[in-house]
Design brief:
Blueprint (H helix, E strand, L loop, with lengths): L1 H10 L5 H8 L8 H13 L3 E6 L7 H20 L4 E5 L10 H18 L3 E3 L7 H14 L3 E6 L5 H8 L5 E5 L14 H17 L3 E5 L3 H13 L7 E6 L7 H7 L4 E7 L3 H11 L2 H16 L1
Parallel strand pairs: 1-2, 1-8, 2-3, 3-4, 4-5, 5-6, 6-7, 7-8
The structure holds flavin-adenine dinucleotide.
Flavin-adenine dinucleotide binds next to strand 4, strand 5, strand 7 and helix 11.
Length: 303
């Protein structure tokens, strides 16, 4: 079964979109903003906070980068109007970083100023290592405009343990995640246990320091360890939150975190560019292919 799931996850990128759509469904909150807003309203009612992301990265021309920026401005206005308890996450290559750094900075600043005026925090997602330095630079400029701009640091990069110490301050909000891109052994830890150790020491360092930790993982062992440490060290609840990706099965874990009074934020991606995103998620956990096929089969049998 494991091999079959792996096989499906590997060949899925070559399937037509209509066949991939059922696999994408759990991860993506819809293609339109209206659909996504309806989903996040429900999550808010269930007690979760959210961060909304328009799917996509690496735009191919500048007009597209400006259009993405405009979509983010629309998203911010909609979040305000719909009274969503949430933030917004975006990627700099989606705003044109690969084509023109000045344009990406300009787009970012426009989003950040609008977010500041509407009092909606934003997070700049972290992409692969060629963009780490520039992302941190743009983040610093953006945070000078609005102190509710957050950054992401990836535990698999050797540099992150130092980055988190250097950047720490009372205004520092950082999502700590393992890191999703393939990076070389020269700059990144390859061993999964060592990545967890790095994640743990980054979180401890921040929580012993001044910043706000956004603990973004589905790894239940890691969550157990961090939760115990937080409790043993009486870390106040306003110093951290837990974050997960929409659609990743977590059993009753998230409800239990809410019951303890912890903030849990769901990362909710939406938009037309769902294909690549879902394929990437499915490769991370090929067993999802098995669950989805059996669910589809059950639905088909019951119809
Ligand atoms: C809120 C959030 C934001 C993120 N932002 C970024 C970012 O800006 N930059 C970046 O590089 N990475 C980002 N990531 C991705 C992250 O770096 C990891 O690649 C991803 O979260 C998987 O790592 P894990 O910590 O869940 O641990 P893993 O050890 O990979 O997974 C733990 C368990 O969770 C389950 N699981 C994990 N992923 C999936 C999945 N897709 N589907 C089903 N089950 C799954 C599996 O059962 C697995 O055994 C983000 C993750 C989260 C939760």
């Amino acid at each position: 079964m494991i091999l079959l799931n792996k096989f499906i996850a590997t060949v899925l990128p070559f399937f037509p979109r209509f066949l991939v759509r059922p696999f994408a469904k759990p991860y993506v909150a819809g293609e339109s903003l209206t659909e996504a807003i309806e989903k996040v309203k429900i999550l808010n009612q269930q007690g979760y906070v959210v961060t909304m992301d328009i799917l996509g990265e690496h735009v191919s021309d500048k007009t597209e980068a400006v259009a993405v920026k405009d979509s983010y401005l629309e998203l911010l206005q909609t979040i305000k109007l719909a009274e969503i308890t949430g933030t917004v996450s975006f990627k700099l290559t989606h705003l044109g970083l690969e084509l023109d750094q000045e344009l990406a900075l300009k787009n970012t600043m426009e989003i950040v100023r609008t977010a500041r005026d509407l009092a909606i925090p934003v997070t700049i997602d972290m992409e692969n290592s060629p963009y780490t330095d520039i992302t941190i630079e743009i983040y610093q400029q953006a945070r000078a405009e609005f102190n509710k701009v957050g950054l992401v640091l990836q535990a698999y990069l050797f540099r992150s343990v130092d980055d988190i110490k250097v950047l720490d301050s009372t205004d520092f909000r950082v999502r700590i995640c393992k890191g999703i891109y393939r990076e070389s052994p020269e700059i990144a830890i390859q061993d999964r246990i060592e990545i967890n150790d790095s994640f743990t020491s980054m979180t401890h360092s921040l929580l012993k320091g001044e910043g706000f930790a956004e603990i973004a993982t589905h790894d239940r062992g890691l969550l157990d360890d961090l939760e115990s440490w937080i409790e043993q060290n009486s870390i106040p609840k306003d110093r951290f939150e837990f974050q997960v990706l929409h659609g990743v099965p977590m059993g009753k874990r998230l409800e239990r975190l809410l019951e303890k009074g912890y903030a849990v934020r769901i990362y909710v991606p939406f938009g037309n560019a769902w294909f690549d995103y879902s394929v990437r998620r499915l490769k991370e956990n090929p067993n999802m292919a098995g669950y989805i096929i059996s669910n589809l089969f059950k639905r088909w049998v019951s119809n």
